[in-house]
Amino acid sequence: MSTDAxxxxxxxxxxxxxxxxxQMAALTSLDLIVNRGDLFGFIGSNGAxxxxxxxxxxxxxxxxxxxxxxxxxxxxxxxxxxxxxIGYMPDFFGVYKDMEVTEYLDFFGACYKIPTAQRExxxxxxxxxxxxxxxxxxxxxxxxxxxxxxxxxxxxxIHDPQLLxxxxxxxxxxxxxxIEMMAILQELQRMGKTIIISSHILSELxxxxxxxxxxxxxxxxxTGPVQ
Length: 227
Ligand code: ATP
What we know:
The protein is α/β, with parallel strands linked by helices. The protein has 7 helices and 10 strands. Strand 4 and strand 5 form a beta hairpin. Helix 3 (101-111) packs across helix 4 and helix 4 (116-129) packs across helix 5. It is globular and about 45 Å long. The site of adenosine-5'-triphosphate (ATP) has 12 residues, from helix 1.
């Protein structure tokens, strides 16, 4: 009897991923593996190439060369499949400030074609997950920054993605809001989701993440355990 089992498919795998903006290389030959179930920290200073990488993984930006796969799906040739299994939270995202919290999430649920009968329950579930149940009827513009960030996270959870790409989700938050955000991410990891989170502060992620990668000027300089 053969004992050879196929190796598990990584949640994220990039090979030689490169991106130029004009003549400038923002990302150079990035080889990165994120395993399923990781809460993975993607660290780099301003301009290191974090957003460029996450945008490529989210299918919003084409690489100049190299490949990237999400759960085995190529982000260029199989972009539709990738969009169904990821939730991408950009570093700057708009919230419709005049909308109510539930209205906003219901709208995105409809965009993902969640049937009307299921949507109320789905919206309630994600609100509970991010600790915003009490703000259901609130106008978004009246929420604190931390609450708006959590609402942004609720939005990317609405279609129950397996993998989350979060671009500096804790930036601009006060220490308490930061701790709340980190606790939610740990809960999502416990639920079995794979999460990659970018930050320019290593210390912010060292207690949260099981593995990290550090990039500088578009090149990977370390990947492995936080220690
Ligand atoms: P930050 O922490 O400041 O968000 P980052 O690590 O996310 O930085 P990127 O936004 O990926 O870095 O930027 C990498 C490099 O590419 C930077 O030098 C940036 O100026 C450049 N860059 C990013 N987007 C563009 C663009 N649309 N056109 C030209 N250059 C760009």
